[in-house]
Amino acid sequence: MSGVSQTTGNPILGFVHRRRRGAELFLLVLALAVGIGAYAAVGVGVEGAVPTDLIGYGGWLAALVVGAHVVVRLVAPYADPVLLPVVAALNGLGLAVIHRLDLTEDTGFAAQQLVWMTIGVGLFVGTLVLLRDHRVLTRFTYTSGLAAIVLLLMPMLPLIGNEVRGARIWVRLGPVGMQPGEVAKVLLVIAFAGYLVLHRDALALAGRRLLLVDLPRGRDLGPILGMWLISLGILVFQRDLGSSLLFFGLFLFMLYVATERAGWLVVGGGLFLGGALVAWQLFSHVQTRVNVWLNPFDYYGPGTNDTAFQPVEATFGMAWGGLLGRGFGGGDPGRVPFAESDFIMAAIGEELGLTGMMAVLVLYGLIVERGLRAALISRDGFGKLLATGLASVFALQVFVVIGGVTGLIPLTGLTTPFLSYGGSSLVANWVIIALLLRVSDLARRPVPELTAADDAGDQDTQVIRVAR
Amino acid sequence: MSELTLLLIRIAYLAVLWIFVLSAISVIRSDMFGARVPETARTPEPRGREPKAKSPSKRRGSPTHVLVTEGANAGERADLAAAPVLIGRGSDAAIRLDDDYVSTRHARIAASGDQWFVEDLGSTNGTYVGTVRITQPTTITLGTQVRIGKTILELRK
């Protein structure tokens, strides 16, 4: 129903994006080489021989990836060609690194992670097949917002809530544990995008100017204050610094993009700084994190309480890795506790070196760039905000967790997307990629030509005219 | 495994990783250097396209006038630059129709964004787009037949 007939004569609007599915397949083959190559290199490096199950493992990985590619070809032919291969490469590399840690520590995380990856690809396919138009999601704005809040509250419930390593972010239902925050992340983006696309005018236009910055009106501060309280609640009651930063930053980014007003960044940044300062004053676990970040070596080694053991060992590992790394099996990444989840970047830094770490960071950058690109060329406001939100939640999470591991910011407990061991995170991230592909598919698809339909009425007009 | 083999594997794997990264970047290089416009679409435009950006309705291929194609006043036209275009029997109408079935102020053609709408102004016999009597402003495009009384109007380039 929109801007139909005008597009034909104009060379710019008549431009049609190429589908690039062939390029995607080519990149997927290379991505499989990255994933399976890493698995083989781990076998050679740690055990001295190419793993015997390489064919089975590689076949399974290839089947998953090619299956996802075929579905994209069928239901989202204009989708972005780079996202799926990049994600496949990261997931394959993550599996290999987890497998490498399994070999030294005698755990079985890699097999479980492969199961989670299968479920993730299944949900990816399901999202693409069932969700043919992302605008359908606007109907569930408040439903998904409510669901996200319920999910965030679930770990606090007495029976199913579970505290792991000081952070109360787990839900345990029988044998299956999950982090509802990872799923809430996706739902929150949908809720924010649906809310902001409707209310951005009020948030963007009203307000007064102070010191070169347009400050919003007091009465429009409701949503941002609500989100700030929720983030602080997560920080205080669940003791999860990372999720708190992630959710509030996400909301701030989306608000800024929706309204084009830097004033929101000033207000939000001020609120966050204030909240963080108060939390630092009041809560010992926040103080510990900050102290460990500022003076890690005061909390490491005999004679201290060894709170900084994890980050300091990670730093040693990355330093030992140097430029080219020790090679798979050449390092000792098992020294870092929880290297397979929060500190997987330290393991990569140790065995693949700065070169490998930079490649991983560029891949993350590519995912974020493709997400923002889909937002730029998307033709509807909701799609723009959805893609921006998903890309920024991804960027924030990568920044927070890798910044924490490398010592740029205080350490927080978040998973590294697609690399870390963790089912909820992996599955949620595959859904994020499916949503981004859907937005980019609709954005790159040529505008439908509706003029032909109008000609059908010609003859009928005459008939009715005679009948009168 | 000898030390040398392990070194070679290490460097080969980093090479594979970076080949993948660089290939991915080369696939999206059109983002940086601009997309290729098909040769056929790049036909020289007439000069004076500068005001194009000002109003979407000035684009090539968009309607420029309303033409009466059937009825007593067939051949009469009104420029869309003077939108909104009032149609009726009254003297203030941009297209005056000598048609007994047309009301004094019958309908209006107006722009919203880059779309054109026809709106019935409470006429006696109604306004039809195609075969449907409209009850609210309705989008019309090039060649859509708008019937008012015994008269048919169209948007034309």
UniProtKB/TrEMBL annotation, chain A:
Record-annotated membrane-spanning stretches: 25-42, 54-75, 82-101, 113-131, 140-161, 181-198, 219-237, 243-259, 264-283, 343-364, 385-412, 418-437
Origin species: freshwater metagenome
Cross-referenced Pfam families: FTSW_RODA_SPOVE
Protein name: Unannotated protein
Keywords: Cell shape, Membrane, Transmembrane, Transmembrane helix
InterPro entries per UniProt: Cell_cycle_FtsW-rel_CS, FtsW/RodA
GO cellular component, one term: plasma membrane
Cell compartment(s), UniProt: Membrane
GO biological process: cell division; regulation of cell shape
Principal place of residence: membrane
UniProtKB/TrEMBL annotation, chain B:
Residue stretches spanning the membrane: 6-28
SUPFAM superfamilies per the UniProt record, alphabetical: SMAD/FHA domain
Biased composition annotated in UniProt, kind: Basic and acidic residues: 42-53
Annotated region described as Disordered, given as residue ranges: 39-64
InterPro entries linked: Cell_Proc_Reg/RNA_Proc, FHA_dom, SMAD_FHA_dom_sf
Keywords for this protein: Membrane, Transmembrane, Transmembrane helix
Keyword set includes Cytoplasm: no
Pfam families referenced in this protein's UniProt entry, alphabetically: FHA
Name used for this protein in its record: Unannotated protein
FHA domain mapped to chain residues: 85-134
